[in-house]
Write a structure and sequence with these properties.
Elements lengths: L1 H16 L8 E7 L3 H12 L3 E8 L6 H14 L7 E3 L11 H5 L16 H11 L4 E5 L4 H9 L3 H4 E8 L8 H4 L2 H8 L5 E5 L9 H8 L4 H10 L2 H4 L11 H7 L4 E6 L2 E6 L2 H13 L27 H8 L1 H14 L4 H17 L7 E4 L10 H9 L8 E3 L7 E6 L2 E7 L1 H18 L4 H17 L6 E5 L2
Length: 475
């Protein structure tokens, strides 16, 4: 009997440890100096649901910290990840060369981005440690300057950083670019108490060949399209370095360590790719976001239009192409849960996906307060929010307010809080249409529900989630 009880306890303990199917394997802070390979590496980590990017630090190296900040912030904004904090290391230890290729290429729209108002990087790191207790990986795509300073000035750094993953030419190659930016910092970090995993680059191997470019052309994610845009640019065509793989090896190593050779040197280790051919396929898989199993019961929802009812069939590919598979799948599941196709359920889906996008989170990762109330049709928005965010009453993450119902919700992630509200003119238009249909046909009429369904499909197709909401930063 004691053996049975012990076995049950063991199973329960292990189930508890694996009870959150959406928790990413890697929580990271990325430190970048704005190199072209950094852009591709950051895109990969943002693309993967198995990595949570908590913050990005812009440090001097290939570019000045100020120019690196502009590159990073512009790209995050272009991905609609406005909520990912970016700090800046204004240290003048290294006089950046502002490498022409890196400086020339724009990661996103740089209009209005002012590095003078960027937050200081040590504060950004401290804030992350205050609100995120998961052990993190500190990813260095340039020098170890920021890591060395954080080790000295942030007491929690030693306990909350489980490893420093550094892109370099090797632990002992003091003349390598990322090492030579700040030799003193490198020596301090490599001799410290946090293990350093040095992921070595491969300068002489053409990674971005026709196979990879063809694969990139088939990816329908903004991250894959971003890398493809660079590879098809005149900047990429003008420089051999663009065809090599360097910093991108870090996200590949985090996901597929079995394709790398590890040589231990004390507490630190050198990591070298052992199968670059196989890594090409894995590279594409990361940019597709295919690094975790997303569903719990079904393997996948079909994207084939023939799978769906005739009235929605013509719009399936258009919706997926325009808004992504995540919104499509959430919309399908939300309306199955809701038991009819409803406009405000679709609005809730789009609102939840937009909030997740803003913070670049997965599901079950933030608290939501919905102001949609408990009276339909506006309250139908709550079902869409639940499915798209995983914030449900069962998880204790969704609260519904009934005072002054509005198509609005607050989303809290770590110490940040935003409020999304459907634009008033759109809300009035939808509400007016529903009232008119109800007045003419009544809720008990099949015609009423047919027209509601028709409107829901129309707005699912026509409403771009990046254009229909007002976003207020509260905290």
């Amino acid at each position: 009997m004691k053996k049975i009880i012990f076995s049950l306890l063991f199973i329960l303990i292990n189930l508890t440890g694996q009870s959150h199917p959406w928790k990413p394997a890697h929580y990271v802070i990325i430190d970048t100096d704005g190199g072209i390979d950094d852009m591709r590496a950051v895109s990969m980590m943002l693309a993967s649901p198995n990595v949570r990017v908590l913050a990005v630090i812009a440090s001097p190296g290939a570019l000045s910290a100020e120019n690196a900040y502009i590159k990073v912030r512009s790209m995050l904004n272009s991905f609609f990840h406005e909520g990912i904090p970016v700090g800046i290391n204004r240290s003048r230890i290294y006089n950046s060369k502002n490498l022409p290729v890196a400086l020339q290429y724009r990661w996103g729209d740089e209009t209005g981005i002012n590095p003078a108002v960027a937050p200081e990087y040590l504060k950004i790191i401290s804030d992350v440690f205050k609100y995120e207790k998961t052990k993190i990986s500190f990813v260095c795509l340039g020098s170890l300057t920021s890591a060395a300073e954080a080790l000295k000035k942030i007491p929690e750094f030693k306990s909350q950083v489980k490893q420093i993953v550094w892109s370099c030419n090797g632990l002992n190659d003091t003349k390598g670019f990322n090492f030579s930016i700040d030799n003193n910092a490198a020596s301090e970090v490599l001799g410290g108490i946090i293990p350093v995993k040095a992921v070595k680059s491969t300068d002489n191997f053409i990674f971005y060949d026709d196979f990879l470019i063809t694969g990139l052309e088939k990816i329908n994610t903004r991250y894959g399209k971003n890398v493809l845009r660079f590879m098809q640019s005149e900047t990429a065509k003008s420089h051999q370095f663009s065809l090599n793989i360097n910093d991108e090896l870090i996200p590949l190593y985090l996901h597929y360590p079995e394709l790398f050779l590890t040589i231990q040197q004390g507490d630190n280790s050198e990591i070298t790719p052992s199968d670059l051919i196989s890594l090409k396929d894995r590279y594409l898989r990361i940019l597709k976001g295919e690094t975790v199993i997303k569903n719990q019961v079904i393997k996948e929802l079909p994207a084939d239009p023939d799978f769906y009812f005739d009235d929605i069939k013509p719009f399936v590919s258009e919706i997926i192409e325009g808004y992504g598979e995540d919104e499509w799948q959430s919309g399908v599941l939300a309306n199955e849960l809701h038991r009819h196709l409803g406009v405000f359920a679709i609005i809730g889906v789009k609102m939840g996906i937009r909030a997740r996008e803003y913070f670049n989170t997965g599901v079950d990762e933030f608290e939501v307060v919905s102001f949609a109330g408990s009276v339909s049709p506006l309250s139908c928005m709550n079902d869409g929010i639940q499915v798209s965010t995983g914030a449900t009453p069962g998880h204790g993450l969704l609260t519904v307010r009934n005072d002054s119902p509005l198509p609005s919700a607050e989303f809290k992630y770590m110490n940040h809080r935003i409020k999304l509200t459907l634009k008033p003119d759109l809300a009035n238009k939808i509400t007016g249409e529903l009232k008119e249909i109800n007045f003419v046909y009544g809720l008990d009429s099949d015609i009423y529900w047919e027209l509601v369904r028709k409107n829901a499909i129309k707005y699912w197709r026509d409403f771009d989630r990046h254009e229909i909401f007002e976003i207020e930063v509260i905290q």
